[in-house]
Fold this sequence. Notes:
Strand order of the largest sheet: 3-2-1-4-5-6
Order of helices and strands: EHEHEHEHHHEHHEEHEH
Shape: globular
Radius of gyration: 20 Å
Structural class: alpha/beta
CATH architecture of the largest domain: 3-Layer(aba) Sandwich
Strand content: 5-15%
CATH class of the largest domain: Alpha Beta
Amino acid sequence: MARLDLDGKEIAPITICLIGGAGFIGSHLCELLMAHTHHSAIVIDVSSDKITHLLEKSCSWSNRIEFHKINIKNDSRLETLIKSSDLTINLAAICTPADYNTRPLDTIYSNFLDAIPVVKYCTESNKRLIHFSTCEVYGKTIGSFLPADHSLRQDPNFYILKEDVSPCIFGPLEKQRWSYACAKQMIERLIYAEGDEHGLKFTIVRPFNWIGPRMDFIPGIDGPTEGVPRVLACFSNNLLRGEPLKLVDGGKSQRTFCYIKDAIEAVLLMIVILHLLCFCLCYK
């Protein structure tokens, strides 16, 4: 259904540039955009496997979605595609533990250095950016960082994460898994600085363990033979092979999970609200 302004006139659809838009999150977001909006999508990724069904000519949405096989690290087309869009959503990242535990250099490049041009082009062309970061930028909670026998370790207040208050506690340099969180925090700080100094309009999203179809890989089945997937994929891997479930920290470690369909509905609301807000500002 078309969205109308206060005078009953249709609000024109927009073009959204989805960087990394053919991955786990991006493929679900593309489906939702096609099914529930009139917006168009320019999808940038290194593979289209997870959105092939949307690109087929027989699909009724194929005229509203286009795919560009681009590695944003070294492709000059990125600038043109961002500038030709109304909104950019950056989902591109190396974000699986199997990768960032063993490839810290690639992790830093992917999550920080490679994202710099995206931020730059959005600033220069005055395009809003929705950037996907991670809950890992918070690092450890104060409670988990305290010594096991510390009197405050049992205080629940020290396990609460508050976006604009909580300190970011990372591990030492030799623990290279923290390269992911550190790189994500650095690009957040760059985005914030661009907004503060040059007027970049942005929204930062910090997912907490989104799960669902098309996520991660099960070693030897839909991904590399070697490697450790995330916890849910790890459980599936063990179940398929008839192996005991491997519990993190003996089962004491806690996680918050959100189903991808619920999470993507929240992202769609961000897009809709931003679209309506921008229209109202222009209308005034």
